[in-house]
Amino acid sequence: MIEALKDDKIVHELGGRFKFTSLIQHRIRELMEGARPLVERNGRTDFEVAVQEAVEGKIHYELEEGKEEGAK
Questions:
Q1: How far apart are alpha carbons 72 and 70 in whole angstroms?
Q2: Domain of 34?
Q3: Which of 21, 27, 39, 43 is deepest in the core (most CB within 10 A)?
Q4: Is 34 among the domain residues?
Q5: Residue 5: per-residue pLDDT
Q6: Is residue 72 in a domain?
Q7: Could you tell me the CA-to-CA distances from 38 to 27, 43, 53, 66, 72 in Å, in that order?
Q8: Are 1 and 55 in contact (CB under 8 A)?
């Protein structure tokens, strides 16, 4: 799983390191609050589960409605 992060492909597909990090942090928070994993846990940490979900394309970065990218 961490091997997938050595290649920047997934990071670029999600729009860069900031968006990737934001996505993973948000998903970890959801998992900690009781959300069901979208992949098999198999003894993995919340971080590893969130990254695997991103690698498999099961979670995506989306802007909130009414907000523009880059807006302050």
A1: 6
A2: 3-55
A3: 27
A4: yes
A5: 77
A6: no
A7: 11, 14, 6, 28, 32
A8: yes
Tokens 């959300």 correspond to: 35
Distances (CA, A) of 35 to 16, 27, 29, 32: 25, 9, 9, 7
Q: Which amino acid is at 68?
A: E
The candidate with the shortest Cα–Cα distance to 53, out of 6, 9, 10, is 10
63 within domain boundaries? no
Which residues of the chain are modeled with pLDDT < 70? 1-2, 65-72
DSSP notation for 17-54: HHHHHHHHHHHHHHHHTTPPPSS--TT--HHHHHHHHH
Q: How far apart are the first and last CA of the chain?
A: 34
Sign, CA dihedral 45-46-51-56, equals positive
Domain count for the chain, please give it: 1
